[in-house]
Amino acid sequence: MNTPVTAAAPGKIILFGEHAVVYSRPALAAPVSQVSARVTVTPDPTADSNGGLRIQSPAINLYAQWDSLPPKNPARAAIQSVLSELNLSRPPACTVRITSSIPVSAGLGSGAAVSIAILRAFSAYLGSPLPNDRINALAYEIEKLHHGTPSGIDNTVITYNQPVFFIKGQPIETFQVPVAFTLLIADTGIPAPTAQTVGGVRQMWQAKPQEYERYFSAIGKIARQARKAIESGAPEKLGALMDENHFYLQKMGVSCPELDNLVRAARKAGAFGAKLSGGGGGGNLIALIQPEKAAEIASALEQAGAARVIVTEVR
Ligand code: PMV
């Protein structure tokens, strides 16, 4: 009988370049280790000789045989892709238990993190832990099932668990952070499915291609400047770049009054700059802060309506 295996995957934030990255502009993202998805695979001694894999996800009250789930269910798809990758026709009798502290539909990569933790834990349980490039490729296919046209940035930053400079379809570039910097991540508490905002941007881009191409290029330029600032040890320059990036995201129609309100509150409380992070329309924003001001700015954001505030250091 196989021995139990646990794998974890962190959350993520997009630092710069969301949405424009779908249109092949660069974006920067970093892992967030304060939250994670965790998957444990254990043998199931109660199953009959035909085996059968059970998925348990207590947070969403899911207890099911994997093959009774719809084919597009991401957990089922992750199990299936490991089986296909390893040329197996069916899984052994085991239980795959999923837990996660990453808020769902909040732009923190919860879906990709769960997929990646399943791919890692299940392949390791079967004795063939998949390398990162395969994990990343399989997780990207699963992202496509529910995001439509994902850029691939979420699965990449979470798989490699390092800050990445990402251009769709190009080799992965991680980057150095010689001077660490501190961010507050504040949640509007409004669930915002990425597919919806990505679809909205696509419609607008089709209606006004020149205008939207200009926004994407301006954002791509900001992402490149941000990478330079980080790599040259001047992360304090990121505040102004965040403000600028948020301005274009507003123009593109992916912010919302609650995000704008929290962005304003963060700046007023002393953040160097702030912007929405991820798909927008709700979800999270990030603000660049001095670490010693974290408690003060966090409390200002809570008073302004933030549902949750996380402090993280990018290094
Ligand atoms: O998963 P989210 O909400 O962080 O959004 C990902 C970023 C987008 O650029 C909006 C979409 C994508 O696939 O890159």
SSE series: EEEEHEHHHEEEHHHHEEHE
Globular, elongated, flat, extended or rod-shaped: what is the shape?
globular
Structural class comes to: alpha+beta
The total of beta strands comes to 11
Helix content: 25-40%
- Give unreliable regions as ranges: none
Given the structure, what is the number of helices?
Answer: 9
Mean pLDDT: 95
Oligomer designation: single chain
Q: What's the end-to-end separation, in Å?
A: 40 Å
Q: Ligands in the structure?
A: (3R)-3-hydroxy-3-methyl-5-(phosphonooxy)pentanoic acid
Relative strand content: 15-25%
Main sheet attributes: strand count, strand direction, barrel closure: 7 strands, mixed
Please tell me how large the radius of gyration is: 20 Å
SSE order and pairing:
Elements: E1 5-16, E2 27-43, E3 53-57, E4 62-65, H1 74-85, E5 94-100, H2 110-125, H3 132-147, H4 153-160, E6 164-166, E7 173-174, E8 181-187, H5 194-207, H6 209-231, H7 238-251, H8 257-268, E9 273-277, E10 284-289, H9 294-303, E11 308-314
Parallel strand pairs: 3-5
Antiparallel strand pairs: 1-2, 2-5, 2-6, 3-4, 6-7, 8-10, 8-11, 9-10
Helix pairs in contact: 1-2, 1-3, 2-3, 3-4, 5-6, 6-7
The chain binds (3R)-3-hydroxy-3-methyl-5-(phosphonooxy)pentanoic acid (PMV).
(3R)-3-hydroxy-3-methyl-5-(phosphonooxy)pentanoic acid (PMV) is lined by residues 14, 18-19, 21-22, 107, 109, 147, 150-151, 153-154, 194, 198, 278-279.
Report what the structure shows:
The longest helix has 23 residues, at 209-231. Strands 1, 2, 3, 4, 5, 6 and 7 form a seven-stranded mixed beta sheet that branches. The chain contains nine helices and eleven strands. The mean pLDDT is 95. α1 packs parallel to α2 (110-125). It has helices at residues 74-85, 110-125, 132-147, 153-160, 194-207, 209-231, 238-251, 257-268, 294-303, and strands at 5-16, 27-43, 53-57, 62-65, 94-100, 164-166, 173-174, 181-187, 273-277, 284-289, 308-314. With 315 residues, it is α+β, with helices and mostly antiparallel strands. The structure holds (3R)-3-hydroxy-3-methyl-5-(phosphonooxy)pentanoic acid (PMV). (3R)-3-hydroxy-3-methyl-5-(phosphonooxy)pentanoic acid binds at residues 14, 18-19, 21-22, 107, 109, 147, 150-151, 153-154, 194, 198, 278-279. (3R)-3-hydroxy-3-methyl-5-(phosphonooxy)pentanoic acid is lined by residues 14, 18-19, 21-22, 107, 109, 147, 150-151, 153-154, 194, 198, 278-279.
